[in-house]
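Worked example

This section walks through a single chain of length 111. The input is the sequence exactly as stored; nothing has been trimmed or padded.
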Amino acid sequence: MADSRYVPRLFAIDDQLFGKQRVIKWKPSGNSIDSELDQSRAAQMQHGVAFAIHAALRQSARYHSVADYARAVDVSERRMAELLRGDIVMRLEDLATAERVLKIRFFGQEA
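Given that input, the structure is written out below as C-alpha cells.
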C-alpha cells in the first residue's frame, strides 16, 4: 500500500463496503481534532466517487472491469484497486480522469 497520511476506508464502520455500497455507516467523529474531521469528510467524498466509478464500470460497454479501466487511463491495476477500496487517498486528477473517460460529472459544468 502506498504511504499516505491516512487510510480513507478506516473511517467506515465496515471498511469492506467502501466504494461498493451506496450508503455505508461512518465512525462517529466525537471530539476529533479538525484534521481528523477533514480526513473523515474527505474519506466520505472518496467513497462516493469510488462508488460512482464502480457503478459506471458496471454500465460500461467498453470497460468490463477495474483492470480494463486502469489500463485505459494508464494507471497500474494495483493503484486503481487501492484507490477504489480506500486504501490510498484519491487525487483530484483521478476525479478529472473519471469525468473525462467514464463521462461522470462530479461537479457542475465549467464556466
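What to look for: The helical segments are 34-59, 66-72, 77-84, 92-102.
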